[in-house]
Amino acid sequence: MIGISKILTGRATVSRAVRGGRPDMLQFSSDYRPVVVWNVTSECNLECEHCYASGFAESGRPELGTGEALSLIEEFSSLGVPVLIFSGGEPLMRGDLFELAEYARERDLRVALSTNGTLIDPGTAAKLKSAGFAYVGVSLDGLEATHDRFRRRQGAFQEALSGLREARKAGLRTGVRFTLTRDNFADLRGVLNLVESERFDRFCMYHLVYAGRAQRLAGLDVRPEESRRAVELLISTARDWAGRGVEAEILTADNHADGVLLLRHILENEPARAGEVRRLLEMAGGSRPAERSPPSTPAGTCAPASSGARARWATSASARSVRSGTAARTRCSGRFAPRDGWRRAPAAGAARTWTSAAAAV
């Protein structure tokens, strides 16, 4: 994940990043503490044509029970996880979601929600606030017609927008998640305008990942020149927003080549800052999600987006079993590197494996 706004406005500096590992600087944190994206359920009330998580639902794997989930949260806490993002499926379909979030907050984890937004009414928004959620991210795949087509349900756009508004009214930080394809490329500017007009806090553009149902949509991925134009639009919009005092933040995810284009922009416009920006991008580390994020699905496993070894971090049988993960391209996002008892096992070929000696049974 590349924080375009933070870099362009100078809010991200190497000195700030190495000082803290604060949640707002984790895109550049030097200690790589693991931000965990947890697919807590494979259930969902929509059937989005580009859903990466559909493979989990179709696999028939059981979900962790409440007790097992609480035990896993204990382990996240013991590992120093700073942020736990509840995702899915649709996480609001899990009956114990608020209990899990409150338990995580009691253990000093910052909790966030990744949702389709359709189930957030005023009551749910109040519960999210009470449970301690710090941020709610809602996926929008374009403007109304485009979004409803992707989500395979008429009215899904208005429901998602309503959910975002209710979350904002409840005092939660809110953001829009947008996955770029040829079918919604033309809507990008309109969605950015929506984020500004609605006063949402964040816009994150994801590049298409060929996993789940999206494996059938490789032909809908944008061409390289379209990807470049999209990132250039984000850069110019971030500059414009900063100049006009618009507080919303812009990020990109799933293609760290975006950082090269951002660095080139800095070299051409603010060459004096180029060295520090390069350091920040190096600290972000490129596209190495399987090394930096402990993947976690409802059953504690995460299938890689490409063929090869299956990433595994925790089991459904016990959250205390040996944790390991082989480097394969997964859709789990975040950061991970060995710390506090984690060690690197010998590499087998190109694969790298992380294990925890301390937690092995």
What layout of secondary structure does this protein have?
Layout: E1 2-3, H1 4-8, H2 14-20, E2 36-39, H3 54-59, H4 66-78, E3 83-87, H5 97-106, E4 110-115, H6 122-131, E5 133-139, H7 144-151, H8 156-169, E6 173-180, H9 188-198, E7 202-207, H10 224-244, E8 249-253, H11 258-269, H12 274-284, H13 289-292, E9 301-302, E10 311-312, E11 324-326, E12 342-348, E13 351-356
Parallel strand pairs: 2-3, 3-4, 4-5, 5-6, 6-7, 7-8
Antiparallel strand pairs: 1-8, 9-10, 11-13, 12-13
Description:
It is a single chain. It is built from 13 helices and 13 strands. 37% of the residues lie in helices and 17% in strands. The two termini are 34 Å apart. α6 links the parallel β4 and β5 (133-139). The protein has 361 residues and is an alpha/beta fold.
CATH class placement? Alpha Beta
- Give the CATH superfamily: Aldolase class I
Summarize model confidence as the mean pLDDT.
76
How does the overall form come out from the CA principal axes?
A: globular
Between the first and last Cα atoms, what is the distance in angstroms? 34 Å
* Main beta sheet strand tally, sense and closure: 8 strands, mixed
H-E order: EHHEHHEHEHEHHEHEHEHHHEEEEE
* Number of separate strands: 13
Structural class: alpha/beta
* CATH topology tier name: TIM Barrel
Radius of gyration: 19 Å
Instruction: Domain count, please report it.
Output: 1
Helix segment tally: 13
Record keyword descriptors for this entry.
361 residues, alpha/beta, TIM Barrel, 8-stranded mixed beta sheet, 3-stranded antiparallel beta sheet, 13 helices, 13 strands, 37% helix, globular, disordered C terminus
